[in-house]
Specification:
With 486 residues, the protein is an alpha/beta fold. It has 3 domains: 3-76 and 211-292 and 426-484, 3-Layer(bba) Sandwich (FAD/NAD(P)-binding domain); 84-203, no CATH class; 298-412. The protein is built from 15 helices and 20 strands. It has helices at residues 11-22, 65-73, 103-113, 118-135, 148-152, 155-158, 165-169, 175-183, 191-202, 212-226, 283-290, 354-366, 368-389, 405-412, 456-474; strands spanning 3-7, 26-31, 42-45, 48-51, 57-58, 81-82, 86-92, 95-100, 206-209, 230-233, 237-243, 246-252, 257-259, 262-265, 298-307, 316-320, 326-331, 343-352, 397-403, 443-445. The chain binds flavin-adenine dinucleotide (FAD). Flavin-adenine dinucleotide is lined by residues 7-13, 30-33, 38-40, 52-57, 236-237, 266-267, 276, 412-414, 419-420, 447-448, 454-457, 459.
Length: 486
Protein backbone atom coordinates (compact mmCIF):
# COMPACT_ATOMS: atom_id res chain seq x y z
CA UNK A 1 0.00 0.00 0.00
CA UNK A 2 1.41 3.37 -1.01
CA UNK A 3 0.88 6.69 0.75
CA UNK A 4 -0.27 9.11 -1.97
CA UNK A 5 -0.42 12.88 -1.55
CA UNK A 6 -2.57 14.67 -4.12
CA UNK A 7 -2.23 18.40 -4.70
CA UNK A 8 -5.59 19.81 -5.81
CA UNK A 9 -9.11 18.56 -5.15
CA UNK A 10 -10.67 19.23 -8.56
CA UNK A 11 -12.02 16.41 -10.74
CA UNK A 12 -8.53 15.10 -11.57
CA UNK A 13 -7.54 15.09 -7.88
CA UNK A 14 -10.80 13.51 -6.70
CA UNK A 15 -10.58 10.87 -9.43
CA UNK A 16 -6.98 10.04 -8.44
CA UNK A 17 -8.05 9.90 -4.79
CA UNK A 18 -11.02 7.61 -5.44
CA UNK A 19 -9.05 5.20 -7.63
CA UNK A 20 -6.16 5.20 -5.13
CA UNK A 21 -8.55 4.15 -2.35
CA UNK A 22 -10.25 1.58 -4.58
CA UNK A 23 -6.84 0.04 -5.32
CA UNK A 24 -5.95 -0.27 -1.67
CA UNK A 25 -3.65 2.74 -1.37
CA UNK A 26 -3.98 5.54 1.15
CA UNK A 27 -4.78 8.90 -0.46
CA UNK A 28 -4.84 12.40 1.00
CA UNK A 29 -6.03 15.36 -1.08
CA UNK A 30 -4.74 18.84 -0.23
CA UNK A 31 -6.99 21.51 -1.72
CA UNK A 32 -6.11 25.21 -1.59
CA UNK A 33 -9.72 26.31 -1.57
CA UNK A 34 -12.41 25.84 1.10
CA UNK A 35 -14.31 23.31 -0.99
CA UNK A 36 -13.38 20.43 -3.32
CA UNK A 37 -14.45 20.21 -6.97
CA UNK A 38 -12.26 22.86 -8.61
CA UNK A 39 -14.04 24.12 -11.74
CA UNK A 40 -16.81 21.58 -11.23
CA UNK A 41 -18.67 23.85 -8.87
CA UNK A 42 -21.48 26.32 -8.29
CA UNK A 43 -22.37 28.91 -5.66
CA UNK A 44 -25.31 30.61 -4.00
CA UNK A 45 -26.14 34.30 -4.45
CA UNK A 46 -29.08 34.84 -2.13
CA UNK A 47 -32.01 32.82 -3.46
CA UNK A 48 -30.16 32.03 -6.70
CA UNK A 49 -27.78 29.20 -7.54
CA UNK A 50 -25.03 29.87 -10.07
CA UNK A 51 -23.86 26.72 -11.89
CA UNK A 52 -20.28 27.11 -13.04
CA UNK A 53 -19.65 24.10 -15.16
CA UNK A 54 -21.46 21.29 -16.98
CA UNK A 55 -22.92 22.28 -20.35
CA UNK A 56 -22.66 18.66 -21.41
CA UNK A 57 -21.06 15.66 -19.78
CA UNK A 58 -19.47 13.25 -22.21
CA UNK A 59 -20.02 9.71 -20.90
CA UNK A 60 -23.71 9.70 -20.01
CA UNK A 61 -24.44 6.92 -22.52
CA UNK A 62 -24.29 3.60 -20.59
CA UNK A 63 -22.65 1.88 -23.60
CA UNK A 64 -19.42 3.85 -23.09
CA UNK A 65 -16.33 3.24 -20.95
CA UNK A 66 -16.55 6.82 -19.70
CA UNK A 67 -20.00 6.10 -18.26
CA UNK A 68 -18.46 3.24 -16.29
CA UNK A 69 -15.82 5.64 -14.96
CA UNK A 70 -18.42 8.23 -13.91
CA UNK A 71 -20.32 5.46 -12.10
CA UNK A 72 -17.18 4.41 -10.26
CA UNK A 73 -16.46 8.01 -9.34
CA UNK A 74 -19.98 8.53 -7.97
CA UNK A 75 -20.80 11.28 -10.45
CA UNK A 76 -23.86 9.59 -11.91
CA UNK A 77 -24.82 7.44 -8.94
CA UNK A 78 -28.56 7.51 -8.40
CA UNK A 79 -29.30 10.72 -10.30
CA UNK A 80 -31.37 11.20 -13.39
CA UNK A 81 -29.51 12.39 -16.46
CA UNK A 82 -31.36 15.11 -18.30
CA UNK A 83 -30.81 15.43 -22.05
CA UNK A 84 -31.98 18.80 -23.34
CA UNK A 85 -33.83 18.82 -26.64
CA UNK A 86 -31.01 20.90 -28.07
CA UNK A 87 -27.43 21.60 -27.01
CA UNK A 88 -27.35 25.01 -28.62
CA UNK A 89 -29.29 27.24 -30.94
CA UNK A 90 -27.57 29.72 -33.19
CA UNK A 91 -29.50 32.86 -34.19
CA UNK A 92 -28.71 35.09 -37.14
CA UNK A 93 -30.84 37.77 -38.83
CA UNK A 94 -34.13 36.44 -37.45
CA UNK A 95 -33.41 32.80 -38.33
CA UNK A 96 -32.26 30.07 -35.98
CA UNK A 97 -30.77 26.57 -36.14
CA UNK A 98 -30.45 24.08 -33.26
CA UNK A 99 -28.16 21.17 -32.52
CA UNK A 100 -30.93 18.71 -31.62
CA UNK A 101 -30.32 15.55 -29.63
CA UNK A 102 -32.43 13.79 -32.28
CA UNK A 103 -29.98 13.41 -35.18
CA UNK A 104 -32.74 13.01 -37.81
CA UNK A 105 -34.45 16.19 -36.68
CA UNK A 106 -31.08 17.98 -36.64
CA UNK A 107 -30.32 16.87 -40.20
CA UNK A 108 -33.84 17.69 -41.45
CA UNK A 109 -33.61 21.18 -39.92
CA UNK A 110 -30.32 21.86 -41.73
CA UNK A 111 -31.72 20.56 -45.02
CA UNK A 112 -34.85 22.66 -44.78
CA UNK A 113 -32.70 25.72 -44.14
CA UNK A 114 -30.60 25.31 -47.26
CA UNK A 115 -31.24 22.84 -50.05
CA UNK A 116 -28.26 24.35 -51.90
CA UNK A 117 -26.01 22.84 -49.22
CA UNK A 118 -27.58 19.37 -49.38
CA UNK A 119 -24.43 17.56 -50.55
CA UNK A 120 -22.28 19.03 -47.75
CA UNK A 121 -25.00 18.44 -45.14
CA UNK A 122 -25.42 14.78 -46.12
CA UNK A 123 -21.65 14.29 -46.01
CA UNK A 124 -21.45 15.91 -42.56
CA UNK A 125 -24.18 13.68 -41.13
CA UNK A 126 -22.61 10.62 -42.78
CA UNK A 127 -19.40 11.45 -40.87
CA UNK A 128 -21.27 12.06 -37.60
CA UNK A 129 -23.12 8.73 -37.87
CA UNK A 130 -19.89 6.91 -38.69
CA UNK A 131 -18.22 8.47 -35.64
CA UNK A 132 -21.15 7.39 -33.48
CA UNK A 133 -20.90 3.81 -34.60
CA UNK A 134 -17.08 3.83 -34.16
CA UNK A 135 -17.59 5.08 -30.60
CA UNK A 136 -20.26 2.47 -29.94
CA UNK A 137 -23.00 4.96 -29.12
CA UNK A 138 -25.20 4.14 -32.11
CA UNK A 139 -25.92 1.23 -34.45
CA UNK A 140 -24.79 -2.05 -32.90
CA UNK A 141 -23.58 -0.20 -29.75
CA UNK A 142 -20.19 -1.90 -29.96
CA UNK A 143 -17.22 0.29 -29.21
CA UNK A 144 -14.87 -0.54 -32.11
CA UNK A 145 -11.91 0.59 -30.04
CA UNK A 146 -10.58 2.59 -33.00
CA UNK A 147 -7.62 4.87 -32.40
CA UNK A 148 -7.56 8.38 -33.82
CA UNK A 149 -5.24 7.09 -36.57
CA UNK A 150 -7.69 4.28 -37.46
CA UNK A 151 -10.50 6.82 -37.65
CA UNK A 152 -8.55 8.92 -40.11
CA UNK A 153 -8.25 5.96 -42.46
CA UNK A 154 -12.02 6.14 -42.98
CA UNK A 155 -12.44 8.33 -46.09
CA UNK A 156 -15.71 9.85 -44.86
CA UNK A 157 -13.90 11.20 -41.80
CA UNK A 158 -10.53 11.89 -43.38
CA UNK A 159 -12.06 14.68 -45.45
CA UNK A 160 -12.52 16.68 -42.22
CA UNK A 161 -9.01 16.21 -40.85
CA UNK A 162 -6.86 19.31 -41.03
CA UNK A 163 -9.86 21.61 -41.35
CA UNK A 164 -10.67 24.30 -38.83
CA UNK A 165 -14.31 25.04 -38.01
CA UNK A 166 -13.97 28.21 -40.09
CA UNK A 167 -12.66 26.29 -43.12
CA UNK A 168 -15.45 23.75 -42.78
CA UNK A 169 -18.03 26.52 -42.52
CA UNK A 170 -16.83 27.94 -45.85
CA UNK A 171 -18.01 24.74 -47.57
CA UNK A 172 -21.57 25.87 -46.87
CA UNK A 173 -23.28 28.70 -48.68
CA UNK A 174 -26.01 29.61 -46.18
CA UNK A 175 -24.84 32.33 -43.73
CA UNK A 176 -26.62 30.72 -40.76
CA UNK A 177 -24.99 27.34 -41.48
CA UNK A 178 -21.62 29.07 -41.62
CA UNK A 179 -22.27 30.85 -38.38
CA UNK A 180 -23.64 27.71 -36.68
CA UNK A 181 -20.49 25.67 -37.44
CA UNK A 182 -18.20 28.19 -35.70
CA UNK A 183 -20.69 29.38 -33.09
CA UNK A 184 -19.74 27.48 -29.98
CA UNK A 185 -16.04 26.78 -30.33
CA UNK A 186 -14.73 29.62 -32.44
CA UNK A 187 -13.09 29.67 -35.85
CA UNK A 188 -9.89 27.77 -35.07
CA UNK A 189 -11.35 24.68 -33.38
CA UNK A 190 -10.69 21.45 -35.31
CA UNK A 191 -13.64 20.39 -37.51
CA UNK A 192 -13.27 16.71 -36.52
CA UNK A 193 -13.38 17.55 -32.81
CA UNK A 194 -16.54 19.51 -33.46
CA UNK A 195 -18.12 16.58 -35.33
CA UNK A 196 -17.36 14.38 -32.36
CA UNK A 197 -19.32 16.79 -30.11
CA UNK A 198 -22.27 16.46 -32.53
CA UNK A 199 -21.84 12.66 -32.49
CA UNK A 200 -21.75 12.47 -28.70
CA UNK A 201 -24.67 14.80 -28.05
CA UNK A 202 -26.88 13.14 -30.69
CA UNK A 203 -25.83 9.75 -29.32
CA UNK A 204 -27.19 10.41 -25.81
CA UNK A 205 -23.64 10.84 -24.61
CA UNK A 206 -23.74 14.48 -23.49
CA UNK A 207 -26.46 14.80 -20.86
CA UNK A 208 -26.71 16.79 -17.64
CA UNK A 209 -26.79 15.03 -14.26
CA UNK A 210 -29.70 16.54 -12.30
CA UNK A 211 -28.73 18.97 -9.55
CA UNK A 212 -25.94 20.60 -11.55
CA UNK A 213 -22.18 20.87 -11.22
CA UNK A 214 -21.77 21.49 -7.48
CA UNK A 215 -23.98 18.49 -6.63
CA UNK A 216 -21.84 16.31 -8.95
CA UNK A 217 -18.65 17.52 -7.21
CA UNK A 218 -20.24 16.85 -3.81
CA UNK A 219 -21.05 13.28 -4.88
CA UNK A 220 -17.42 12.72 -5.94
CA UNK A 221 -16.19 14.17 -2.65
CA UNK A 222 -18.59 11.95 -0.68
CA UNK A 223 -17.41 8.92 -2.65
CA UNK A 224 -13.77 9.70 -1.86
CA UNK A 225 -14.47 10.19 1.85
CA UNK A 226 -16.67 7.07 2.05
CA UNK A 227 -13.72 5.02 0.74
CA UNK A 228 -11.58 6.29 3.61
CA UNK A 229 -9.75 9.04 1.70
CA UNK A 230 -8.59 12.12 3.61
CA UNK A 231 -9.43 15.62 2.37
CA UNK A 232 -7.65 18.71 3.72
CA UNK A 233 -9.18 22.04 2.70
CA UNK A 234 -7.53 25.47 2.80
CA UNK A 235 -4.15 23.79 2.17
CA UNK A 236 -2.20 25.55 -0.58
CA UNK A 237 0.92 23.65 -1.64
CA UNK A 238 3.82 26.11 -1.74
CA UNK A 239 6.87 23.93 -2.28
CA UNK A 240 7.54 20.35 -3.31
CA UNK A 241 10.86 19.32 -1.72
CA UNK A 242 13.20 17.18 -3.80
CA UNK A 243 16.01 14.91 -2.72
CA UNK A 244 17.98 12.28 -4.63
CA UNK A 245 15.72 12.50 -7.71
CA UNK A 246 12.56 12.01 -5.65
CA UNK A 247 9.85 14.31 -4.33
CA UNK A 248 10.00 13.82 -0.59
CA UNK A 249 7.49 16.20 0.95
CA UNK A 250 5.18 19.14 0.34
CA UNK A 251 5.13 22.40 2.33
CA UNK A 252 1.86 24.29 2.65
CA UNK A 253 1.01 27.95 3.06
CA UNK A 254 -0.03 27.37 6.69
CA UNK A 255 3.54 26.37 7.53
CA UNK A 256 2.91 22.61 7.72
CA UNK A 257 4.83 19.95 5.79
CA UNK A 258 3.78 16.42 4.79
CA UNK A 259 5.76 13.48 3.44
CA UNK A 260 4.43 10.80 1.09
CA UNK A 261 5.54 7.87 -1.10
CA UNK A 262 4.01 9.43 -4.22
CA UNK A 263 2.93 12.96 -5.06
CA UNK A 264 0.31 13.68 -7.71
CA UNK A 265 0.04 17.25 -8.96
CA UNK A 266 -3.23 18.31 -10.60
CA UNK A 267 -2.69 22.10 -10.83
CA UNK A 268 -2.05 23.97 -14.10
CA UNK A 269 1.60 23.12 -14.99
CA UNK A 270 2.20 26.82 -15.69
CA UNK A 271 1.93 27.50 -11.94
CA UNK A 272 3.87 24.38 -10.95
CA UNK A 273 7.21 24.22 -12.80
CA UNK A 274 9.79 26.74 -11.62
CA UNK A 275 7.32 27.81 -8.92
CA UNK A 276 6.20 25.19 -6.41
CA UNK A 277 8.47 22.64 -8.10
CA UNK A 278 12.10 23.58 -8.77
CA UNK A 279 12.31 21.67 -12.03
CA UNK A 280 12.00 22.92 -15.61
CA UNK A 281 8.74 22.32 -17.42
CA UNK A 282 8.98 19.15 -19.59
CA UNK A 283 9.64 20.07 -23.24
CA UNK A 284 6.37 18.62 -24.53
CA UNK A 285 4.39 20.92 -22.23
CA UNK A 286 6.60 23.90 -22.97
CA UNK A 287 5.94 23.47 -26.69
CA UNK A 288 2.19 23.56 -26.04
CA UNK A 289 2.34 26.68 -23.83
CA UNK A 290 4.50 28.44 -26.42
CA UNK A 291 2.47 27.29 -29.43
CA UNK A 292 0.49 29.83 -31.39
CA UNK A 293 -1.84 27.11 -32.70
CA UNK A 294 -3.00 25.47 -29.47
CA UNK A 295 -4.07 28.47 -27.44
CA UNK A 296 -5.42 29.07 -23.94
CA UNK A 297 -8.59 31.03 -23.28
CA UNK A 298 -10.99 32.05 -20.54
CA UNK A 299 -14.28 33.94 -20.42
CA UNK A 300 -16.37 36.66 -18.82
CA UNK A 301 -19.67 35.42 -17.43
CA UNK A 302 -22.86 36.81 -15.89
CA UNK A 303 -25.69 35.17 -14.00
CA UNK A 304 -29.01 36.82 -14.78
CA UNK A 305 -32.46 35.86 -13.61
CA UNK A 306 -35.39 36.08 -15.99
CA UNK A 307 -38.97 36.65 -14.81
CA UNK A 308 -40.81 34.74 -17.51
CA UNK A 309 -43.11 31.76 -17.88
CA UNK A 310 -41.09 30.40 -20.76
CA UNK A 311 -38.15 31.29 -22.97
CA UNK A 312 -37.94 31.43 -26.75
CA UNK A 313 -35.01 28.95 -26.74
CA UNK A 314 -33.74 25.90 -24.86
CA UNK A 315 -30.22 24.81 -23.85
CA UNK A 316 -27.65 27.36 -24.97
CA UNK A 317 -28.45 30.15 -27.40
CA UNK A 318 -25.77 31.94 -29.40
CA UNK A 319 -26.00 35.30 -31.09
CA UNK A 320 -23.78 38.24 -32.02
CA UNK A 321 -24.38 41.71 -30.58
CA UNK A 322 -24.45 44.81 -32.77
CA UNK A 323 -20.86 45.40 -31.66
CA UNK A 324 -19.87 41.99 -33.10
CA UNK A 325 -19.42 40.30 -29.73
CA UNK A 326 -20.54 36.67 -29.56
CA UNK A 327 -22.78 35.92 -26.57
CA UNK A 328 -23.60 32.40 -25.41
CA UNK A 329 -26.61 32.41 -23.12
CA UNK A 330 -27.52 29.33 -21.19
CA UNK A 331 -30.88 28.67 -19.56
CA UNK A 332 -31.62 26.52 -16.51
CA UNK A 333 -35.37 25.91 -16.75
CA UNK A 334 -34.57 22.21 -16.14
CA UNK A 335 -33.30 23.15 -12.65
CA UNK A 336 -36.21 25.09 -11.12
CA UNK A 337 -34.56 25.14 -7.67
CA UNK A 338 -31.79 27.41 -9.00
CA UNK A 339 -34.14 30.43 -8.90
CA UNK A 340 -37.25 31.48 -6.93
CA UNK A 341 -40.63 30.39 -8.35
CA UNK A 342 -41.56 32.30 -11.50
CA UNK A 343 -37.94 33.01 -12.46
CA UNK A 344 -35.41 31.12 -14.60
CA UNK A 345 -31.65 31.33 -14.15
CA UNK A 346 -29.66 32.36 -17.21
CA UNK A 347 -25.92 32.63 -17.66
CA UNK A 348 -24.14 34.57 -20.38
CA UNK A 349 -20.62 33.76 -21.47
CA UNK A 350 -18.21 35.60 -23.75
CA UNK A 351 -14.91 33.90 -24.50
CA UNK A 352 -11.72 35.93 -24.28
CA UNK A 353 -8.14 35.61 -25.47
CA UNK A 354 -5.16 34.96 -23.24
CA UNK A 355 -4.28 38.65 -23.48
CA UNK A 356 -7.71 39.85 -22.33
CA UNK A 357 -7.67 37.30 -19.52
CA UNK A 358 -4.29 38.51 -18.30
CA UNK A 359 -5.38 42.13 -18.40
CA UNK A 360 -8.49 41.36 -16.30
CA UNK A 361 -6.30 39.59 -13.72
CA UNK A 362 -3.90 42.54 -13.65
CA UNK A 363 -6.70 45.07 -13.33
CA UNK A 364 -8.20 43.28 -10.33
CA UNK A 365 -4.80 43.30 -8.65
CA UNK A 366 -3.94 46.92 -9.38
CA UNK A 367 -7.27 48.72 -9.25
CA UNK A 368 -10.07 46.89 -7.52
CA UNK A 369 -12.56 49.76 -7.84
CA UNK A 370 -12.10 49.99 -11.61
CA UNK A 371 -12.30 46.20 -11.93
CA UNK A 372 -15.61 46.14 -9.97
CA UNK A 373 -16.97 48.97 -12.08
CA UNK A 374 -16.08 47.08 -15.28
CA UNK A 375 -17.85 43.99 -13.98
CA UNK A 376 -21.00 45.98 -13.27
CA UNK A 377 -20.86 47.54 -16.76
CA UNK A 378 -20.41 44.13 -18.32
CA UNK A 379 -23.47 42.80 -16.48
CA UNK A 380 -25.62 45.69 -17.66
CA UNK A 381 -24.35 45.40 -21.23
CA UNK A 382 -25.30 41.70 -21.25
CA UNK A 383 -28.82 42.58 -20.11
CA UNK A 384 -29.04 45.17 -22.92
CA UNK A 385 -27.86 42.55 -25.42
CA UNK A 386 -30.50 40.09 -24.19
CA UNK A 387 -33.25 42.72 -24.37
CA UNK A 388 -32.22 43.61 -27.90
CA UNK A 389 -32.19 39.97 -29.01
CA UNK A 390 -35.42 39.06 -27.18
CA UNK A 391 -37.52 42.27 -27.12
CA UNK A 392 -40.51 40.29 -25.78
CA UNK A 393 -38.52 39.81 -22.52
CA UNK A 394 -37.69 43.48 -21.98
CA UNK A 395 -37.86 44.38 -18.27
CA UNK A 396 -37.73 40.71 -17.17
CA UNK A 397 -33.99 40.49 -16.44
CA UNK A 398 -32.13 41.01 -13.15
CA UNK A 399 -28.34 40.87 -12.72
CA UNK A 400 -27.26 38.32 -10.08
CA UNK A 401 -23.49 37.94 -10.46
CA UNK A 402 -20.53 38.65 -12.75
CA UNK A 403 -17.27 36.70 -12.86
CA UNK A 404 -14.13 36.93 -14.92
CA UNK A 405 -10.80 35.21 -15.68
CA UNK A 406 -9.54 36.85 -12.45
CA UNK A 407 -12.20 34.88 -10.54
CA UNK A 408 -10.86 31.62 -11.96
CA UNK A 409 -7.28 32.71 -11.27
CA UNK A 410 -8.19 33.15 -7.59
CA UNK A 411 -10.51 30.19 -7.31
CA UNK A 412 -8.65 27.37 -9.10
CA UNK A 413 -5.22 28.97 -9.46
CA UNK A 414 -4.80 28.45 -13.23
CA UNK A 415 -2.32 30.93 -14.64
CA UNK A 416 -4.58 32.95 -16.94
CA UNK A 417 -7.87 31.90 -15.35
CA UNK A 418 -8.45 29.18 -17.95
CA UNK A 419 -10.71 26.29 -17.08
CA UNK A 420 -10.20 24.02 -20.09
CA UNK A 421 -6.79 23.15 -21.51
CA UNK A 422 -5.39 24.17 -24.91
CA UNK A 423 -7.84 24.55 -27.78
CA UNK A 424 -7.97 21.68 -30.23
CA UNK A 425 -6.26 22.83 -33.44
CA UNK A 426 -7.32 21.53 -36.84
CA UNK A 427 -4.10 19.64 -37.62
CA UNK A 428 -3.75 17.57 -34.50
CA UNK A 429 -4.63 14.14 -33.27
CA UNK A 430 -5.69 13.66 -29.68
CA UNK A 431 -2.28 13.51 -28.00
CA UNK A 432 -1.69 12.66 -24.36
CA UNK A 433 1.33 14.24 -22.72
CA UNK A 434 3.22 12.03 -20.33
CA UNK A 435 2.61 12.68 -16.63
CA UNK A 436 6.13 11.65 -15.56
CA UNK A 437 8.59 14.36 -14.62
CA UNK A 438 12.29 13.75 -14.94
CA UNK A 439 14.07 14.67 -11.71
CA UNK A 440 11.22 13.44 -9.50
CA UNK A 441 10.60 9.76 -10.17
CA UNK A 442 7.73 9.38 -7.68
CA UNK A 443 5.89 12.52 -8.85
CA UNK A 444 3.13 12.37 -11.45
CA UNK A 445 1.09 15.00 -13.19
CA UNK A 446 -2.62 14.29 -13.50
CA UNK A 447 -4.17 17.24 -15.23
CA UNK A 448 -6.42 18.21 -18.08
CA UNK A 449 -3.41 20.10 -19.49
CA UNK A 450 -2.05 16.73 -20.67
CA UNK A 451 -4.67 16.54 -23.44
CA UNK A 452 -6.54 19.08 -25.59
CA UNK A 453 -9.13 20.40 -25.12
CA UNK A 454 -9.38 19.32 -21.47
CA UNK A 455 -12.80 18.97 -19.86
CA UNK A 456 -14.24 16.71 -17.20
CA UNK A 457 -13.67 13.25 -18.78
CA UNK A 458 -10.04 14.09 -19.59
CA UNK A 459 -9.41 15.42 -16.06
CA UNK A 460 -10.97 12.30 -14.49
CA UNK A 461 -9.13 9.98 -16.86
CA UNK A 462 -5.77 11.61 -16.06
CA UNK A 463 -6.41 11.03 -12.34
CA UNK A 464 -7.23 7.39 -13.06
CA UNK A 465 -4.11 6.94 -15.22
CA UNK A 466 -1.84 8.36 -12.50
CA UNK A 467 -3.07 5.67 -10.11
CA UNK A 468 -2.63 3.02 -12.78
CA UNK A 469 1.02 4.12 -13.09
CA UNK A 470 1.50 3.89 -9.34
CA UNK A 471 -0.12 0.45 -9.24
CA UNK A 472 2.27 -0.70 -11.96
CA UNK A 473 5.26 0.59 -10.00
CA UNK A 474 4.04 -1.01 -6.80
CA UNK A 475 3.04 -4.29 -8.48
CA UNK A 476 0.09 -4.17 -6.15
CA UNK A 477 -3.30 -3.78 -7.72
CA UNK A 478 -5.45 -4.39 -4.64
CA UNK A 479 -9.15 -4.49 -5.42
CA UNK A 480 -8.93 -3.39 -9.03
CA UNK A 481 -12.06 -1.48 -10.02
CA UNK A 482 -13.66 -2.42 -13.33
CA UNK A 483 -12.60 0.69 -15.17
CA UNK A 484 -9.04 0.29 -13.98
CA UNK A 485 -8.41 -3.14 -15.45
CA UNK A 486 -4.94 -3.47 -16.89
C1 LIG B 1 -17.84 27.75 -17.37
C2 LIG B 1 -17.30 26.36 -17.53
C3 LIG B 1 -17.97 25.46 -18.32
C4 LIG B 1 -17.46 24.16 -18.48
N1 LIG B 1 -18.18 23.27 -19.19
C5 LIG B 1 -17.76 21.99 -19.28
C6 LIG B 1 -18.58 21.01 -19.89
O1 LIG B 1 -19.69 21.28 -20.30
N2 LIG B 1 -18.09 19.74 -20.00
C7 LIG B 1 -16.84 19.40 -19.55
O2 LIG B 1 -16.44 18.24 -19.69
N3 LIG B 1 -16.05 20.32 -18.95
C8 LIG B 1 -16.48 21.60 -18.79
N4 LIG B 1 -15.70 22.53 -18.15
C9 LIG B 1 -14.30 22.20 -17.84
C10 LIG B 1 -14.13 21.41 -16.55
O3 LIG B 1 -14.73 22.08 -15.50
C11 LIG B 1 -12.64 21.23 -16.29
O4 LIG B 1 -12.06 20.64 -17.43
C12 LIG B 1 -12.34 20.33 -15.11
O5 LIG B 1 -13.12 20.68 -14.01
C13 LIG B 1 -10.85 20.41 -14.77
O6 LIG B 1 -10.58 19.64 -13.63
P1 LIG B 1 -9.11 19.59 -13.01
O7 LIG B 1 -9.18 18.80 -11.78
O8 LIG B 1 -8.15 19.15 -14.07
O9 LIG B 1 -8.69 21.09 -12.72
P2 LIG B 1 -9.32 22.18 -11.75
O10 LIG B 1 -10.77 22.17 -11.79
O11 LIG B 1 -8.62 23.46 -12.12
O12 LIG B 1 -8.85 21.73 -10.31
C14 LIG B 1 -7.57 21.98 -9.81
C15 LIG B 1 -7.69 22.10 -8.31
O13 LIG B 1 -6.39 22.25 -7.77
C16 LIG B 1 -6.41 23.23 -6.77
N5 LIG B 1 -5.07 23.80 -6.64
C17 LIG B 1 -4.40 24.51 -7.57
N6 LIG B 1 -3.18 24.85 -7.10
C18 LIG B 1 -3.09 24.32 -5.85
C19 LIG B 1 -2.06 24.32 -4.85
N7 LIG B 1 -0.90 24.96 -5.03
N8 LIG B 1 -2.30 23.68 -3.67
C20 LIG B 1 -3.48 23.02 -3.46
N9 LIG B 1 -4.48 23.01 -4.38
C21 LIG B 1 -4.28 23.64 -5.55
C22 LIG B 1 -7.44 24.23 -7.24
O14 LIG B 1 -7.95 25.03 -6.18
C23 LIG B 1 -8.48 23.32 -7.86
O15 LIG B 1 -9.46 22.92 -6.93
C24 LIG B 1 -16.22 23.81 -17.90
C25 LIG B 1 -15.57 24.71 -17.05
C26 LIG B 1 -16.12 25.96 -16.85
C27 LIG B 1 -15.45 26.90 -15.88
Amino acid sequence: MADILIIGGGVAGLSAGIYAQLCGHSAAIYEAHGVAGGNLTGWQRGDYHVDNCIHWLTGTNPATKTYEMWEELGVLGGVEVFTPESLYTCRLDGQSLSLYSDINKFEAEMLSLSSLDEKEIRSLFGAVRLLQSAMGIAGDKQDKGLSAKDILKLPLLARYYGLSAKQLSMRFSHPLLRSFICAFWGDEFGALAMLSVFANFCGGNGGLPRGGSKAAADRMTARFLSLGGRLYLGKRAEKIELSGGRATSVSFSDGTRTEADYIIVTADPAVVFGKILDLPMPKAFLRQYESTRAVRFSSFQCAISCRAGSLPFGGDCIFDTDGGERVIVREFSHEPSFAPTGEIMLQTMTFCSERAAKSSIRLRRLNRAEYDEKKQKLGLSQICALEKEFPQLKGCFKLIDVWTPATYRRFVGSEIGSYMSFTFPARALPRKLDGHVSGAENLLLATQWQQSPGGLPIAAERGRQAILEICKKEHAYGRMPLALEV
